[in-house]
Design a protein that fits this description.
The chain is of the alpha+beta class. The chain is built from ten helices and twelve strands. It has three domains: 64 residues; 110 residues, no CATH class; 99 residues, TATA-Binding Protein. The strands form two sheets. The protein has a seven-stranded mixed beta sheet with strand order 1-2-3-4-5-6-7. The protein has a five-stranded antiparallel beta sheet with strand order 8-12-11-10-9, with helices on one face.
């Protein structure tokens, strides 16, 4: 056996030193984790709060010599961060519901009774997480603290707030949605996050692109009929599009922003307060909601397919 392949035999002293050093390193690693977790839980400095959450995400707490049996998950860290930024902003619309247990953390919206929500880790990105209800597979938004991104998932938001929660007062649904919008506002204004509001974008003229690209004439005819049945007049525009004036001067336009060779149909909303997003429109006007759900395959609003696909 050559000297290169000879296995070194440790003396008793060396073995014990390696053992004590390994335990010490494991405990020091645990102390760093505790420091980051205390900052996540207590700091009022926004930059420090984000840094602590990023540090704790994918943190390797256990070692070969030191194992901590009770640990919060990476998904729990995202939820604590979410609750903290809302708390620091004075918002009471979301609370962690089972904080007394070191286990999978859940949260509740004040306006949605006992419905619970949590984060789950993305299978595509180790620093990305989906937020959604525990009773349904609905990724309402994607959050990545490391890359500073938040993306809302239009289809899941509509499926949950319009379909799954049918029967709950629109005011209560909007109260929960306002909390999500508050989260996005804080992340954008205070932390510099890139936000994709998707169906929650209330900016006038925002183009909500339909999945089908081209919309059959029969679907537009259906909207004409439903509008008339509800005492609204849908006016034909150029190139097959249409405009609909709703309550308080809110206007819906459905049109092709592409061309005849490459159609790109979608909708835009205009209102004085710039609050009437596509999702709010579906909640506020049942006949438009019915039209959308009846033709969802064609009218679905596109989201980021790489993240949500």
């Amino acid at each position: 056996m050559s000297k290169e392949t000879e296995k070194k035999v440790l003396t008793t002293n060396e073995l014990l030193k390696h053992y004590s050093d390994s335990i010490k390193n494991g405990l020091n690693n645990g102390a760093k984790y505790v420091d980051a977790f205390n900052r996540l839980n207590n700091t009022s400095d926004q930059n420090d709060l984000l840094a602590a959450a990023v540090e704790l995400t994918n943190y390797q707490l256990n070692s070969d010599f030191v194992v901590f049996p009770h640990q919060f998950s990476d998904a729990d860290v995202q939820l604590v961060f979410l609750e903290r930024i809302l708390s620091l902003a004075g918002s009471k619309g979301l609370t962690i519901s089972n904080a007394e247990h070191v286990q999978k953390l859940l949260c509740k919206f004040a306006s949605l009774s006992d419905n619970t929500f949590t984060f789950t880790k993305s299978s595509k990105n180790p620093t990305g997480f989906f937020f959604g209800p525990t009773d349904y597979n609905r990724p309402l938004f994607y959050l990545n603290l490391k890359t500073k991104e938040l993306m809302f998932h239009g289809s899941a938001l509509i499926d949950y707030f319009v379909v799954d929660l049918e029967g709950i007062a629109v005011s209560d649904l909007k109260a929960a949605l306002e909390v999500l919008l508050k989260v996005a506002e804080i992340l954008k204004e205070s932390f510099g996050f890139k936000i994709d509001f998707n169906v929650l974008d209330g900016v006038n003229g925002e183009f909500y692109e339909f999945a089908a690209g081209e919309i059959p004439e029969a679907i537009m005819d259906e909207l004409f009929v439903k509008s008339a049945d509800n005492k609204f007049i849908l006016m034909a525009d150029q190139n097959g599009g249409a405009s609909l004036t709703l309550n308080e001067g809110t206007q819906l336009k459905v049109y092709n922003s592409g061309n005849s060779d490459r159609p790109k149909w979608g909708a835009a909303i205009y209102d004085a307060d710039q609050k009437e997003s596509w999702l709010y429109l579906l909640l506020d006007y049942p006949f438009i909601q019915e039209w959308y759900l009846d033709n969802k395959k064609q009218l679905e609003i596109l989201s980021n397919q790489f993240v949500f696909g």
